[in-house]
Specification:
By secondary structure, the chain is an alpha/beta fold. It is globular, with a radius of gyration of 17 Å. The protein has a 6-stranded mixed sheet with strand order 1-3-2-4-6-5, sandwiched between helices. It has one domain: Uracil-DNA glycosylase-like domain (Uracil-DNA Glycosylase, subunit E). The protein has helices spanning 11-18, 26-29, 53-58, 65-76, 102-119, 128-136, 142-145, 163-168, 171-199, and strands at 37-38, 44-48, 85-88, 123-127, 150-152, 155-160. 37% of the residues are buried. Bound molecules: iron/sulfur cluster.
Amino acid sequence: MTEEWREATTMNRLWGAIKDCHRCPLGETRTNVVLGAGNESAEIMFVGEAPGFHEDKQGIPFVGPAGQFLDQLLRSIGLDRGQVYIANTLKCRPPDNRDPLPEELATCTPFLFKQIEIIRPRIICTLGNHATRTLLGTTTGITQLHGKLVRKKGLAYVPLFHPAAALHKPPLKSVLIGDFQLLRENLDSERARWREERENPPETPVEEDAQPEQMGLF
Ligand code: SF4
């Protein structure tokens, strides 16, 4: 695989550059690279952990029961998959759905950061502990962070419970439903903030530090 992916400015170009990726051992056991799906100009991006059995077979993220619940949650705030973008930290399925290994994440997450760079979403929702820890670099668990907007290096994040976790632990379902209502409010606030910044741009240039930390990995 070449380094062509670094130059990609569209998801199509990125897909063309990584669809045959074998940078880590998961390339030997997967069926499909699951890059992501949805709107390339989405205001909200969802990031889960890794493809599962059905995702690996179909090459689409969040299919199966967890995906259906995510669709239901999106509908509850007036959205559908065509208006958001859904991806994972890892693009290939770990065997038996085991947890991602640190070296796999280190190899694969630059592709996720490139996706964030292409989409420039207003809010990134991390689904579950793995995605939250990977993107926010925190050891604080999702139980404490869920539903709250966190700013980091110029990006806005809202950690959420993973829909699959809510299916296994029914009390989490109502928590997730409530957090989606907060997400709707946070999106409205972010829209207003972006509008304000566009109409009244800051006089001083944006500091280098305000760029997403992960962009340094490109
Ligand atoms: S998990 Fe990521 S780095 Fe590993 S083979 Fe798949 S696309 Fe490449």
